[in-house]
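Structure first, sequence second, as always.
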């Protein structure tokens, strides 16, 4: 047994990393519950969503698609193919969860 193995023996087991998408999806869901409009566009998400979501456009779209898959957002048709708009589904739940 070498020095590093002896030192590592006393350490606790490393904690498993959580998947980042559910955390972002939950943050976005919490933000959408306070959003004053009945719809939200990708442009509004890039501008007004929490910073951890809007730092990357692909991340913002993926997060919105996760919420759409779980029934919190419904995609609406648009005239332009590069524009995305979703209808917000509001449910009477005190602390909504993504998978709920």
């Amino acid at each position: 047994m070498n020095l590093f193995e002896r030192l590592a023996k006393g350490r606790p087991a490393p904690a498993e990393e959580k998947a980042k998408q559910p955390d972002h999806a939950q943050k976005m869901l919490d933000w959408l519950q306070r959003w004053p409009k009945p719809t939200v566009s990708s442009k509004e998400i890039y501008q007004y969503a929490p910073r951890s979501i809007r730092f990357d456009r692909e991340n913002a779209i993926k997060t919105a698609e996760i919420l759409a898959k779980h029934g919190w957002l419904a995609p609406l048709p648009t005239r332009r193919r590069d524009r995305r708009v979703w209808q917000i589904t509001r449910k009477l739940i005190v602390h909504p969860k993504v998978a709920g």
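Margin note: The CA atoms of residues 33 and 92 lie 10 Å apart.
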